[in-house]
């Protein structure tokens, strides 16, 4: 078993991160497997070295030890670009020049009964899909969901988390209507989260992805990309989210529950485990 923890260095780790890291770490250790650490610093406009240092410090304090070198996404931009080129060459993508405002305007007449938002934000209305724009005219590259489903399905993944336990089969119509043409790369970002995470987990040999339930819906996109790229699909475990007293999920800006704050207040790693129910 190879598990991983993949925080973004854009703020302090909080209790929710501690839960995720400890769960993935403990699962691997329990069976003599490996636990990897990845720094998801794809978004260079938000990633900060001091947050990365704080991640190492907090994890070490928590007793989490990772195997091998840390993988940083910013060291792998070329890998993402190469994988994107494979999809592009097979006609599974298209270039898009829509701004956020264009998408909002085009989405003003939504089709009845269909959701406006999917796991990748507002569902793309399709404006540039048939325009065959060149790279130089585009601001981002999108997956052509219809083509991708024709090529990549059938596909299914196994979920072992509490809320969505069982096998999940991707259905083309659902993917087109509730996910749509997701962004794979932007002019200022070599890969979107979806593309990078699939490449990273494959390159690192991750067998079990353990992460928060908020990412469950995105897993359908990851599974489809794995199928298109002939990469094995890991097992997935989406755990429940740690919430504050009001029932709201913790956010990066929720400094009050930062691990570093608990440390300052004199709590021990065992106290943190108890707080998250481990
Ligand atoms: N970097 C992502 C986050 O901090 C997690 C990615 C993943 O676990 O797939 O939310």
Write a structural description.
There is one protein chain. With 278 residues, the protein is α/β, with parallel strands linked by helices. The protein has two domains: 1-75 and 243-278, HUPs (Rossmann fold, 3-Layer(aba) Sandwich); 76-205 and 214-232, HUPs (Rossmann fold). It is built from ten helices and twelve strands. It has helices at residues 15-30, 49-62, 77-89, 100-106, 145-152, 172-178, 193-203, 219-228, 259-264, 269-276; strands spanning 2-5, 34-39, 71-72, 93-96, 117-118, 121-122, 140-143, 156-159, 166-169, 183-186, 208-212, 235-239. The strands form five sheets. Strands 1-2-3 form a three-stranded parallel beta sheet. A hairpin with a 2-residue loop joins strand 5 and strand 6. Helix 1 crosses helix 10 and helix 7 packs across helix 8 (219-228). The protein is globular. It starts with a strand and ends with a helix. Residues 6-8, 40, 197, 211, 215 line the site of glutamic acid.
């Amino acid at each position: 078993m190879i598990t991983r923890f993949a925080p973004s260095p854009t703020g302090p780790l909080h209790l929710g991160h501690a839960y995720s890291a400890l769960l993935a770490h403990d699962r691997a250790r329990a069976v003599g497997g490996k636990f990897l650490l990845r720094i998801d610093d794809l978004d260079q406009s938000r990633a900060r070295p001091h947050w990365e240092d704080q991640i190492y410090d907090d994890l070490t304090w928590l007793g989490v030890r990772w195997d091998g070198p840390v993988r940083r996404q910013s060291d792998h931009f070329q890998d993402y670009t190469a994988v994107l080129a494979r999809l592009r060459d097979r006609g599974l993508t298209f270039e898009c020049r829509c701004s956020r405002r264009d998408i909002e305007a085009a989405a003003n007449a939504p089709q009845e009964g269909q959701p406006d938002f999917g796991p990748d934000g507002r569902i793309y209305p399709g404006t540039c899909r048939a325009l065959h724009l060149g790279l130089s005219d585009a601001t981002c590259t999108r997956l052509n969901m219809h083509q991708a489903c024709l090529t990549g399905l059938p596909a299914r993944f196994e979920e072992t988390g509490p809320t969505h336990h069982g096998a999940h089969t991707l259905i083309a119509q659902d993917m087109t209507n509730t996910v749509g043409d997701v962004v794979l790369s932007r002019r200022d970002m070599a890969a979107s989260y979806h593309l990078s995470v699939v490449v990273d987990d494959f390159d690192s040999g991750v067998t079990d992805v353990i992460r928060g339930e908020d990412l469950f819906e995105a897993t359908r996109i990851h599974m489809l990309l794995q199928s298109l790229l002939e990469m094995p699909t890991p097992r997935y475990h989406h755990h429940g989210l740690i919430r504050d007293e009001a029932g709201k999920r913790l956010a990066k800006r929720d400094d009050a529950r930062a691990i570093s704050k608990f440390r300052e207040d004199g709590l021990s790693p065992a106290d943190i485990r108890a707080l998250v129910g481990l």
